[in-house]
Every structure is written in C-alpha cells, then in structure tokens.
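I am writing to request your help with a piece of structural work I have in hand. A protein sequence and the structure tokens that stand for its backbone fold form the material at issue. Please examine both parts with care and let me know of anything in them that strikes you as inconsistent. The record follows directly beneath this note.
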Amino acid sequence: MSKPFKATKKTDNGRLALPLRILLAAVHAGSWMTGRPLRRMRWRMSLFMKAMDAAACLKLPGQRVEWGDLQAQSRSGRPIPLRWYRPVAPESGATGPLPVILYFHGGGFALGDHRVRHRYNQAWAALSGCLFLSVGYRLAPEHPYPHGADDAYEALLWAAEEAGRLGGDPARLAVAGESAGGNIAAVTALRAARSGGPPLKGQALLYPAVDLTGGSGSTDAEQPSLRQNGRQYMLTLQLLQQFANGYAPPELRVEPEVSPLLAEQLGGLPPALVVTAELDPLRDQGHQYAERLRAAGIPTEYCCYGGMIHDFTAMMPGWLPEAEHSLRLCADFLKERLQEEAAVTETDWTAGMIGSVTPQDSSSIGSELQ
C-alpha cells in the first residue's frame, strides 16, 4: 500500500493550493463550462477533461502501456465500447494473465466518456499492474437510469467471460470509478452480489455520488458538506441537481441501484476503499457509505484529503501531491486484493489472446507516461 499521507489543509489565510485557485477561476469565469443544459455542456466538459489530462497527468518514466479499443457484446447483442490498457511490464513483475479492473468514468452520468482521460487511465494500468478496462456506458439524459448501470454490469459479465482474450484473468476482477462512476462501480458490486454475478475482489470508489436524494432519503445521517461546499468549489448544488434530474426521477432516487447509500443490506460486497475530499459536497455521503460498509462487516478503508475539491484525483495527479497519492492509494489497494494465484496458466492465456485487436504502438505510448 502507499505510505500514509498527511493531507494538506488549506493555508492559514484560507487560500487553496495555487493549481486549484487557477482551476476554479477558469471554471467559474462566465460559467463557460457549467450552468448550461447537459447536452450543451458535454463538448465543453470533454475539452476541459482532455486539456487537464494532457497538462496535469502523472508522469511515470519508463512505464509503457499498450492500449486499444473494442466493443464488448451485451447479452442482448448491444455493443458496449471499451478502451483497454495493458502494462507492458507490470510493477508486480508477474507473468501470465493479469488481474482485471473495470473502471467507470465520472461526469454526472451525462458528461465525459471512457477515452477523454487517456493518460489517467494509462497511469492506473501502470500503477496497478492490471488489465484496465475503461467502460463507455450510456449517458443521461438521453439514456437515463437504468441504462448506464445496465451497461456497466454487462461489461462485468463480458469481462468474466472474455478478459482472457486480452491477457486478463477472469477470476480476478475488481471495479473502480470516480464521482458518478463511483456510483456506477458501487452499483455494479451491489448487483453482482445480489444476483450471484461474477465475484469481485475489491472496489475503489473515488468521491462517489452514492446518494442522489440530496440527503433527503431514508438515512438518518445529515450531510452538511452539501451546504458547506455546494457553491464555490466547481461541483455546485445546482449542477448536482441537474445531474440527478437527468439520470433518474425523484421517485427512483431512493432505489439502492440509484443511491447505494440507501440500500438496506450491504453484506456480501467486496472489500472497499472510499476516497473523499474535504471541500467536496459529496464528502459526507462518501464517508457515510464507508461507515455503512464497515457496519455490514465489509473490510473498508476510508481516506479524506484535506484542502481538496471534487475530482482532484483524476484532474491533477501530476500537479497535486494529494491527487497523486490518492491515485497510487487506489491502485495499490486493488493490486493487493487481486494478487491471488492466477486461475489459468501462462500457456492458456497466451494461446487465447485476442487477435483482431491490435495494440497501439507501445513505444510511443510509453513516452506519454514520461
């Protein structure tokens, strides 16, 4: 695991770290990115995510990652786009099939996609030593709940059957995600546990949105972070309401597969790591979810980073020590829980690797991580 990290608080005069101050000034100036209908916001957010991914990515000299695009087939035959990442020399030094992480991107269930944070995804693969599958689930409001959650679970079922074609071990699966993707990852773990789906070895949830009721659901715990942090730190209450409205009507937001925090039973879930940020409106619901998992007997680790805002890990792992540490923490957490004996031999998996997907040139990709 990563070494313990003493998260940096705001400075004595209450000022944020310089990269965060610049970011917030750019985002809020003229509401050029937020405060618009979700469809009109989408291309702006994609440009923003790509720009931040290029400028503030985590540089990992000497690490090389192959990648490629494919379409997984759901049980109904509908294609689900995936971008896969495979480290050329996993940090673990292991040979044979690699453990598999299915990752679900953030964006309020409506923005971003599985490709916009390409360098961030590469870093995940390199640090975890795993086959990393970034899942392109359908987005709201065109495809509200349950479409995105259905896509995520179908991707898990596909990985349990077909990951070996990419050099992965279908017996060693985990899920992860940030923000709305943290919700999707948590829901995927819930659905797998309830329906007897593929067993998961772990789940890593970065500042997850696990309560879409705005704190008005059946849980007795209050969420003061919604009020404290819901105006000036990029993810505003207005934006949260937009995302919730686009994803599910009010009567469905109390359902466990929309708001996992409100699930009556959380037993049988895989070990969890929950990461939150001090200045995130979602801080309290993430903490409450970690506490509920612990109360259900699920091995759970929780870490809140002082002075950080929503999405800090994915936005700035190359600029903020807290962001880099949280990324390494998640990668190490899943790496440790996936280090069980491979279910198949090296001969088996090399013989079955997919032939129709050609990885991009790994030497050029390696240079992107330097």
